[in-house]
Design a protein that fits this description.
By secondary structure, the protein is mainly beta. It is 5% helix and 39% strand. It has one domain (6-61).
């Protein structure tokens, strides 16, 4: 299992609103591009307990990558 890359934290303001800060230095190497748009995939988790600074929201880089599709070969072709 890969180590999580924590890149920010925050606080729940209400049941439907959170405030957070993201450290740009920590996400710089995880910037991706798709059709000319740059983005970073992140995971936002609500902690069971606030930390020593009152932060109860944790943000980490989402490093999930789809598995590469293997080309199907049909060994039963007649030629």
């Amino acid at each position: 299992m890969e180590k999580k890359i924590y890149c920010g934290s925050g606080k729940k303001q209400s049941n439907t609103w959170m405030k957070a800060t993201i450290n740009m230095d920590k996400i710089q190497e995880h910037i991706e591009e798709f059709k000319g748009t740059k983005f970073v995939r992140i995971n936002i988790n609500i902690k069971e307990e606030a930390d020593q600074f009152g932060k109860d929201v944790s943000i980490s880089v989402d490093k999930w990558q789809p598995k590469e599709k293997k080309e199907k070969t049909n060994d039963k072709l007649p030629f």
